[in-house]
Specification:
Chain B: Belongs to the OST1 family. The complex is a heterodimer. Chain A is mainly alpha-helical. Chain A is about 65% helix and about 5% strand. In chain A, strands 6-5-7-13-12 form a 5-stranded mixed β-sheet, with helices on both faces. The longest helix of chain A is centred in the middle third of the chain and has 39 residues. In chain A, about 45% of the residues are buried. In chain B, the strands form 7 sheets. In chain B, strands 5-4-7-2-1-11-14-13 form an 8-stranded mixed β-sheet. Chain B has an 8-stranded mixed β-sheet with strand order 21-20-24-17-16-27-30-29. Chain B starts with 6 loop residues before the first helix and ends with a helix. In chain B, strand 16 and strand 17 form a beta hairpin. Classes of the chains: A mainly alpha, B mainly beta. Chains A and B meet through helix 29 and strand 12 of A and helix 4, strand 21, strand 24 and helix 7 of B.
Chain lengths: ~800, ~475
Amino acid sequence: MATSKVEGSSSLRHAFGGVLSVFILLLIGVVAFSIRLFSVIKYESVIHEFDPYFNYRVTQFLSKNGIYDFWNWFDDRTWYPLGRVIGGTVYPGLTLTAGTMWKLANSLNIPLSVETVCVFTAPIFSAFAAWATYLLTKEVKGTGAGITAAAILAMVPSYISRSVAGSYDNEAVAIFALIFTFYLYIKTLNTGSLFYATLNSLAYFYMVCSWGGYTFIINLIPMHVLLCIVTGRYSSRLYIAYAPLVVLGTLLAALVPVVGFNAVMTSEHFGSFLVFIIIHVVALVYYIKGILTPRLFKVATTLVLTVGIAVCAVVVAILVALVASSPTKGWSGRSLSLLDPTYASKYIPIIASVSEHQPPTWPSYFMDINVLAFLVPAGIVACFLPLSDASSFAVLYLVTSVYFSGVMVRLMLVLAPAACIMSGIALSEAFGVLTRSMKFHITKYFECSHTEAPAKLGESTSTESSAPLENMTKSDTTEKPEVARKEKVARRKQKKEKELTENAHVKPVSAKKEKRPLVLPLEASIVSVFLLIVLGGLYVLHCVWAAAEAYSAPSIVLTSHSHDGLHVFDDFREAYAWLRHNTEVDDKVASWWDYGYQTTAMANRTVIVDNNTWNNTHIATVGTAMSSPEKAAWEIFNSLDVKYVLVVFGGLVGYPSDDINKFLWMVRIGGGVFPHIKEADYLKDGQYRVDAQATHTMLNCLMYKLSYYRFVETDGKGFDRVRRYEIGKKHFKLTHFEEVFTTHHWMVRIYKLKPQKNRIRGKSRKSKLGSKSTSSKSGGMTHKNPWN
Amino acid sequence: MECRLPFSLVVFCLVILSSTVRSELVISSVEKFVDLHSHIVRVVSFLKVENQGPYDVSEFVLAFPDAQAKNLATMLVIYLEEGKIIYSEFPINSTKPKLKQSNMTFYPVTLPKKLEKGKTAGLDVYVVLTNLLKPLPKEITQAESQLLVYTDNIYYTSPYHIRNQSIVFRLPGRIESYSEYSEMRLVESELRYGPFEEQPPFSYSPVVVHFENNNSFAVASNFVQEIEISHWGNVQVTEQYTIIHGGAHLKNGFSRIDYQANPSMSGASSFRTLVARLPPMSHSVYYRDEIGNISTSHLRGDSQGTQLEMELRFPMFGGWKISFSIGYSLPLHDFLFESDAGNNVLNITFGSSIEEIVVENQIVRVVLPQGSKDISVKSRFTTKKSQELKYSHLDIVGRPVVVLEKDNVVPEHKRYFQVYIYYKFNNIFLLGKAMMLILGIFLLFLICILYMHADLALSKTSSWEEETEGRK
């Protein structure tokens, strides 16, 4: 009678809790979505930065021409004259997702533009990511931790920086895919269900479609599997979680054109295959162990080991030989720079020149994950109490992502979910312990006043207490691996605590608990809860501030607050609009590669290089042209059929990320391919400067001239507000270029190549061209221009 | 000095028009004012017509050289009799003579009241012409002013005998050069030729005025206006413009330093802002182009109307092009009325909301609510009309769209002509979509409930976990 009453009340409580958690999750989704709308409210609904413009353009193409044309799309607007096969070189996940969303809305006659869908894709998927985090953390440490982690992830600044409305980049959907894949892996590991294993491969497929970061998954999961095997946690569930993922996942990954045979041919994937072999060997060993007597098993082990080592040695030798035979040792440049942080800056200036490929600084950790940095260690401790397959995975995920984020600031994004999960666990555990002890004290106070038996109190707390405490006490008794497994089963069935498989196992626990109730003093727990709430409040404040102030700027529109109000710098779009409307459709525009995507998307003009830095030589050609004197630059550009040259100049208004500040990279990248460009020629005593002290080469290169042409006439002195000094060469004329457009704040300047002087028509022209090329060769610069 | 039209042509014309000319109308006096202040040429002619024939006359013929007739945007004729204004607008029905040699276009005007013999009546003809001002030189640098040439007939082109006439050019500023005639006067910026006495029909003598005009030469090569009617009480107007600076082309590139250092001197021929006059009570105004919002604009509103001052992304120089779109919402009750027959009458103003702009091709798409029937359009001028369907906001059968297309639209179209669209609409359709949404959400919940209660498992102990546990 009494038990049924308790059961009834508890089921009601569970139902209420279920509804409440659904409601909380819904609110978390709303928070995740709306905190990312600061950019739309403060600025406008517009695509941000550089790469999103390319994705937007691809989505436009997809929505206009359909999926089949998309796969076959050869884009002749970029990398002129090479072009680019977009369908085969792009991760299609994001584009297909937004395209599908757009199509769905349009089929329901909801008039949404492609741009609107693209702008809001990232916030929508942030909500999904928060829910996926809930699921993952729930598998690791229970519902409470799940909800806490989801709430933390919904507003972690690191993730916000990549997923505000308008930042339509691969990471926007990839983080969701990453977390969801991990969730399904853990789910499969916990249930051993083949259904989840299949879903896991599909989620992995979506991740492969979305982001190059999928290699993180395909290396982390094998690492975890290996860890489980090494620590003696092998089970058939582990096998089901891993083997289908490798087989199905690799097959599916190979379907994505951009990955293709890389899924089996590059070293990033070799780890997974190795572990695949190992898990099979281990499975075989476990099977044989089951059917053989211990003595026979020993004999078999020695036999297999000797043969196995020999075979392994051969295989490893072959692998090493294969890997060593490829020039980059089978690793792509970006992945190599992960393993060896100095690799990129040593060998690939084009990778090193991207700011997001630099290692992060300590303040950026605090900026991006804030208080989570302090909560993470607590979370790790909580994960070890007790260590299950799932929690060991969480720890492993955190540790590896910490390492990777230390290598490349961009991968801070991968760290964020791990940090959120850990902090969620830590906070939830802390709250659990504190509130339980508060409850214990309060109930004791009431019970004492009602003079009831303390024995009953112990029982009631044991039924009411949630799993972690029980686990904590139980962990003392877990010595044999078998017990660990049973304990896992028990943890999965938290809801039915009373139906624990072995009553005998529970009894000592409750007995123990009565002796050592693991409670803190009431005052201490109240203060601690208060402090934790303050900590959470600080975190929320920081996140809102970061979302509103730090990460919402679309970077194509700049604003500044001055005494007479808000000032808007809309120069980029001014220039792109001018190019779009006042140049011929087939004109080629040369600029540094940063502005390639924007030029093709916003101005709809053909560019020479863009942000997809796949051809180093081509970029080096543009870099060489920019660092050459006017005449040589004109020849390079003319041979590339360029009609307009676009430079970004911040000297008038103090916009620091302009081409003069990026110029050293142009020199380095150009010099890497064309050795006549030497970095030393542009540096005065090892210092980069454009004032009167600057070198002759620097003051005569095209970039300097195009940036500062007639700049001195603005204030009479030529004071550069970014560099904070007067420029070196003030009065000069352009001989081979003419200014055709400069934006309102001079941030973008567009020049046109002057037509060749005294052009001779007909036969004589050919001979002239011929003589020119030979003369340039005789000048000793044979490697000057690859397009001649 | 005077050169007549080829004699044969005059004869042809006379033969063709014999029926009307036979009536022996004589124009006793004409005063023609040509306003050259903007790139739209506005010509007002005050005519006094005398009937000297034996019959009453009900028709008067206006004649224009083809060069003008081709660019004639609109014409307004006011008929005055004995000082009494009989205001009337005449639709332009061009009756072109079938003769190929003729370079004249004739517009017969049916008089509202017959002109009795011996009587005199006044006729004010207001003509708006476009594309007649030619830049000379065709290319100028940023620092130069824009010079335009206007060519016209010094005599009033008419199939009637004219006793006394004069022509006045009103100019915006400096005059570079002009045709010399004995009877001429230049007072400030007004150039007057005449009076000329007793000229036979189709007298012709060219007059050329070369003058400075730096007013904004905005030509919308393409203008699409979409007016979406919602019977919930809102009209959403979207206007898409492609605007070209139709004046002298810019040569030698654009220099920002010159433009900024002395804006009045440099770039005089360019324009940076356009002003749109939106109807009163306009709200939710936006101004953007295909790459996002254009942040440089000012909105001022009063009871007379709302003024949107748009600064373009870049200053427009000769030959430059830009495109953008503006949109705004209006209360429905200002535009929709109910006719006696139970029809809804939609009253729309044709033409661009931007001031002083020539629209080469305008398309107006009026999106009526879903379920509208019996649609008819009434307008005072000829437009190409067609109908199509548009699907938006959860439509099922689609909204009927009335498409009106017209070339060469000037601000006068907006001022003087209204377009009326009649249609029938049952207000019960308004609830349709709300019901649809309610039903949809209801079905969603129903499916959820059914799914939660249905047991789709094949066996009760399907879980592999439980089976293995059971074995233990």
